[in-house]
Write a structure and sequence with these properties.
- The protein is of the alpha/beta class.
- It has helices at about 5-25, 70-85, 140-164; strands at about 40, 55-65, 90-100, 110, 120-125, 130-135.
- Strands 1-6-5-2-3-4 form a 6-stranded mixed beta sheet, with helices on one face.
- Helix 2 links the parallel strand 2 and strand 3 (about 90-100).
- The longest helix is centred in the last third of the chain and has 24 residues, at about 140-164.
- The N and C termini lie far apart (about 55 Å).
Length: about 160
């Protein structure tokens, strides 16, 4: 009778530990992420970023010299994204990584980054770190969904930065 409470106490301590260990080792826990963009696999920090003044976040289009039709579509999408930001336009910069064939006096042009995918949109923080990637899709409907996801992620980040 004296050993019974001790065994119950030990069981109550060991069972949750064993279950937690099994949950981690056997991948029972779903990987829940609320972001719509893809995190980059390697850290990319843009050079010479600190030499100019930037806002909290920057939406950038990777526009290498050989990109034509897809980049033109994404450039149009960049304009639409800026309009869709609404009251948050003052907190977000728009940039083109590379040189656009069309004259775009509206957006800042930065040097191209070779390791980034052409025609993809990127979310860059105020320190010049490329955080999220939103790849280009040939299908227009899929592109619109990607751009909506970018806006959701950006609004979440702006709300979070306001509260901290």
């Amino acid at each position: 009778m004296k050993n019974n409470p001790l065994m119950i106490f030990i069981g109550c301590c060991l069972v949750p530990l064993i279950m937690a260990y099994l949950a981690l080792k056997l991948d029972w826990i779903p990987s829940a992420s609320s972001n719509k963009g893809e995190f980059l696999t390697q850290e990319i920090k843009l050079q010479d970023w600190q030499q100019s003044v930037h806002k909290q976040w920057t939406i950038a289009l990777n526009h290498p010299a050989q990109c034509e039709q897809a980049c033109a579509e994404q450039l149009h999408a960049l304009n639409n994204l800026y309009v869709a930001l609404g009251k948050n336009q003052g907190k977000v910069d728009m940039a083109i990584l590379g040189q656009a064939q069309q004259q775009t006096l509206r957006w800042r042009e930065l040097p191209a980054v070779d390791v980034l995918q052409p025609a993809s949109l990127y979310l860059i923080d105020h320190m010049g770190l490329v955080v999220l990637q939103y790849p280009y899709h040939v299908e227009p409907q899929q592109n619109r969904l990607t751009q909506k996801g970018l806006l959701k992620d950006l609004k979440k980040l702006l709300n979070y930065s306001r509260s901290s």
